[in-house]
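Batch manifest line 311
LIGAND: NAP
JOB: complex structure
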Amino acid sequence: MVLDPPLPKPLFARLTVIGIGLIGSSILRAALGRRLAEEVVAYDRAPEVRTRAEALGLADRVAASPTEAVAGADLIVLCVPVGAMGAAAEQIGPAVAADAIVSDVGSVKASVARALAAHIPGHAHIIPAHPVAGTEYSGPDAGFATLFKNRWCILTPPEGVNPAALERLEDFWAALGANVEVMTAERHDLVLAITSHVPHLIAYNIVGTAADLETVTQSEVIKYSAGGFRDFTRIAASDPTMWRDIFLNNREAVIEVLGRFTEDLIALQRAIRWEQGDALFDLFTRTRAIRRSIIEQGQETAAPDFGRAHD
Ligand code: NAP
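JOB STATUS: finished
ARTIFACT:
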């Protein structure tokens, strides 16, 4: 996949990205590559990450402090773990310029919106966002400019948001290659609980169960993992800090979806116990159709075995 050419005119005067990990460094790479801002500034609390970002040329300028980073910025994007959003917002708050757009990329939206509102001055526009794109890798080396291409980015503006500011942020994400959708933070958190958060929890659980099973050895689990387990291990390798924060910050929606999941799992257990083959067959037919629609909508490859090379 290639990045589209630079824009004829940058969308922002100064873009500041706080947190130079997988997502932050991907935004920086794409923003520089397409020249989405006249100046692209980055900051991370870890000195070694700042040094690495400089070596990789991820920004026009890597700032030494959060206030220096956001001074004069008209777009600020917080790319730190969900549990660190409040602290990051508190650190930048006093230096945020009037009319600046303050956004984020957190995987949970209602709690982040509250954290931002507590620390960002009223003269700025808070518009939380979540690019539904990522990998199981972290850090400034893990990002790439085309990460957001043809992926969804969900914006969750508060009621009464400034329409011009919202449009500018929509244009920014569209320029990063994303398809933009707008919804409430509560809706986002419920939808993502079923499409992302609970699936991750299931992966963490099944990999943990396999690791703890006394009757099957670890070497057997690894040796025969291609039977399906391997695909769960990719998800279960996701960043522990990020996912701890997601579950702690989207508790209600996750618990609601988990309740429903548990009931359905027990129904499946019963169908197996009572040899109700038709019930199993019907469910597996419906789920196969869902995978086909995901492929048709370009959100997954149709190549067998998730496109893995077999030579
Ligand atoms: P990451 O690779 O772990 O990078 C996060 C960076 O932020 C780290 O370098 C971290 O430093 C730094 N940081 C933490 N607190 C900070 C603060 N107060 N000020 C400045 N920097 C700070 O994380 P990521 O995967 O890019 O995730 C970032 C955000 O994107 C999260 O909110 C996550 O929910 C969201 N997201 C992730 C994905 C995904 O697949 N990874 C997808 C969509 C959205 P330390 O290492 O010192 O803590």
